[in-house]
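User: These chains co-purify. Model them together.
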Amino acid sequence: MQGPDKDKGQAIIAAAKRIFALHGYNQARVEDIAQAAGVGKGTVYEYFSSKQAVFEQVVDAGMSQYMKGLEDEIRRDASPATKLRQIAVLHMKFVTNHQNLANIIIADPAIMSPHRARLREICEQAQDMVAGVIEQGIRMELFKAVDTLLATQAFFGILSSVGVSHLVRQQSRNPEEVASLAVDLFLYGLVTA
Amino acid sequence: MQGPDKDKGQAIIAAAKRIFALHGYNQARVEDIAQAAGVGKGTVYEYFSSKQAVFEQVVDAGMSQYMKGLEDEIRRDASPATKLRQIAVLHMKFVTNHQNLANIIIADPAIMSPHRARLREICEQAQDMVAGVIEQGIRMELFKAVDTLLATQAFFGILSSVGVSHLVRQQSRNPEEVASLAVDLFLYGLVTA
Amino acid sequence: MQGPDKDKGQAIIAAAKRIFALHGYNQARVEDIAQAAGVGKGTVYEYFSSKQAVFEQVVDAGMSQYMKGLEDEIRRDASPATKLRQIAVLHMKFVTNHQNLANIIIADPAIMSPHRARLREICEQAQDMVAGVIEQGIRMELFKAVDTLLATQAFFGILSSVGVSHLVRQQSRNPEEVASLAVDLFLYGLVTA
Amino acid sequence: MQGPDKDKGQAIIAAAKRIFALHGYNQARVEDIAQAAGVGKGTVYEYFSSKQAVFEQVVDAGMSQYMKGLEDEIRRDASPATKLRQIAVLHMKFVTNHQNLANIIIADPAIMSPHRARLREICEQAQDMVAGVIEQGIRMELFKAVDTLLATQAFFGILSSVGVSHLVRQQSRNPEEVASLAVDLFLYGLVTA
DNA sequence: GATGAATGAGGGTTCATTCAT
DNA sequence: AATGAATGAACCCTCATTCAT
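Assistant: Joint model of the six components:
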């Protein structure tokens, strides 16, 4: 699968990420990716077995990077609220960086269907980590005894939605600031005290 | 282009909604849609000018139905919090009903690109309506003086995320209950009082 | 009795002649013909078994009309040159009236292939008639002893070419005048005496 | 193994010329052309943007070859009658070689409609050249003071008609001989001196 | 290894024909 | 008889994939 020249493989992944995000999976032609990577069309097949495989590598690379960052934050010694704040920044950056790859995966059920189980597993791992933080907060009586799964999904939902809207569409604020405001809302709610 | 038999056109729209949601735009063959609607492949073209047009009609039908419901809720005489609660139920039902059509639109930039401007306008109308409710709450000093745009996006983000996860994947709870829990979280936050 | 059926069949033939001449065989849709004839699409199939059959009827109608005129001219008591002059006017009117139907037949080998033999037979009948006139002229030592087949084809070639150019494209002169000039050229040649 | 690009493009043109002449434009499937050229269906689209474009290239190739020959004859130092005789041979060969491509163009108004203006221009150039020769003959008082446009059209009409009949249908004589007989008729007419 | 010319399966779309009303 | 909604065979074209250089 992996050709010997790691740099070229990475260049193709990077190019593919841009092209997929820009045009969507089906509208992205292998030739476009090759051109964006500065290689010939056939070269893509030296490094990856198929267009599908390129996409999976793009997703895998993004996810593993994300998971690595997530694990680091979780392992850190901090209060649950602080951890959520840090994870929020991480997630916001991820959303900003990977634009709509996640949507491609969701929207095109045929894509990654062989790998979908593993992808879901990874997502669930991420959710479990955050759920763990929330449970910790609940045990410490800092958080209400809500349904942790629902809260976790709400957490990601807020961040993704706000992230896409604020960062992709308007680049007026930095990710940290937006993440902070979103987490405030998540932690303290909309209603006045 | 529009044949006189409204029922058949509606049947095609309904079938197309299922097929698009199931397979994604590109993997959905016109023949699949025709078969699902119980008509011949050519009949689809008696009612719609193209596959693209079918998709747009599917989206339009869903959106106009949604907007109609939203306007009804907004116009109702109720407290901002109650309005948000009602809108949440509406949105949750919409997400449940339309599954990942929204994601298809987001993920495939080429789809609906001529109509994208109008679609965005509709979405912004919906956001403006909810933003109006939140502003009203802020003026009444019921809500904190947050960035209303950010809060609105967070509101939709929570509902969409929770809706997809809870309702599409696990159908253990009814939309009303899940919407209520999500809104509680949005209004009162995670942190204990 | 002149039932309404006959009228409708004739109307379809007349409409088809216009549509075929205007768009060519393949670009002429059965629906176009039906519409031009002021009837429903299905009605065409009440009178003709297929699009192909409609075209054949159009051609047959034109040819039999043409042949009838030709026979009348041949039977007339006149000098060979005068006969050719009369036939030329007839042919020029035919070309004007039927525009490019002949070209459609020639250009689309699949069209009328079952009937092509008969069509060729009719054309050859027409050629034989004119060839007979030329032979008569040769026997009377009014015409040179040329290859009658070649002369006949030249006769039709001049008339068709001049007819299409002068009458279809520029309608400045009447068929009789143009036919007369063309026949002068055919009879007396270009070179000065 | 495989020759350079140009050869394959030329092979496709040559194959297309045969297939179009044999079946007509619409009945000629792209796959037929590809097969006749000994290439895959997709290869046609490596060299030409569409079926339409293939046809236009076929026509262009034929026309430019024809025009080149025509110009050479015109430029030659010879009497008008001799020039016409040479042009006649050229035209007869062209008709023989290109069979009914011209008819396809005439019969199918939709074909080449974007290029029709240019095609007509080319035809008019050819007509103008021949008209020039005839005018020269008239000025030299070798030819009668006829309408040159009409004479030119008659010239082409004789040659095309005789060419198609004699050469395509019966291949008993060579083009030069037939052309010569046709020109004799055109120059000296049918009537005895 | 790197390339891109060659390939053909697949699908959107048209339209001649049918048939229930 | 007359209609036009319904149908599906046919065909152009795209683009992922292969392979000879």
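Residues 51-75 of chain D form the longest helix (25 residues).
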